[in-house]
Write a structure and sequence with these properties.
Strand order of the largest sheet: 4-3-5-12-6
Number of helices: 11
Strand content: 15-25%
Number of domains: 3
CATH topology of the largest domain: D-Maltodextrin-Binding Protein, domain 2
Shape: rod-shaped
CATH superfamily of the largest domain: Periplasmic binding protein-like II
Amino acid sequence: MQRMNLSRVDLNLFVVFDAIYREGNLTRAAESLHLSQPAVSHALGRLRERFNDPLFERSGKGVAPTPLAKAIVGRVRVALQDLESTLTEGLNFDPARATRVFTLAARDVMEATALPPLMARLQTQAPGIQLRSVRIARRDMESALSSGQIDFAADVLLPVADDIEHQAMGEERLVVVMRRSHPLAALPWQLETYLQAQHVLVSSRAEGPGVEDFALTRLGRVRQVALRCQNYYAAMQVVRSTDLLLTLPDSFARDMAQLQPDCLIRPLPLTLAPLEMHLYWHKKASRDPAVMWLKEQLTGLLS
């Protein structure tokens, strides 16, 4: 039997194979497929050449399968059923029965605040769905969405191309966290107090200011950053044992404060608009009901 390159095989040949096996007669198989008998005979000839086997031999007024045909019919039918299910699910998505892996590009704050309620929802509504959370550089977000490397990205409002769609998920205000025994905790909380301390800056970039630093620059002020690290959980552990301050999104701060009651939360003493969080996906994914279903689950988490 020749080794088959699937890209060079007409999958309709296997539909013809299944019909001939089921009907035991080329004429009836042609009628069931709404094809002419010569077309069915031609398809069978191509399959015989591929498998180097007659597959069906004359028997009475019809045809009987050869041993090879009997050996492969089960796998052929399972494959055809899987393809049909794939096409059907593509049009009618049933979360309760779906088995699929989705990939979301998110930063640690989004993971910490959105993933717990999202996974609780998936466990009850779509237990067969798996989710992967990864980190993608902002410069690579559009290409990752376009290539299908990721299904969604969650980030602040960014300029994107026309083929990238997005929807607001909600807003995040920045707050400041310090340890409860911090020397500044008893002082009036104002900008001057904030600037007396050293700070932790959380960023996936090796250098560059945070959004709060831009706001300070507009006032002609600057803060002293003693530590730059990559995730807020590590930063919170530093804050617990030092006099450093951490500026971070309010939702994550409150979640962490429940686990670390030795920390205090203060408002950011700056006039700064809330960060608008957006969910991004590629326009072509809008035709996929599974992707659109998960989009609805995601956009409802922070609103």
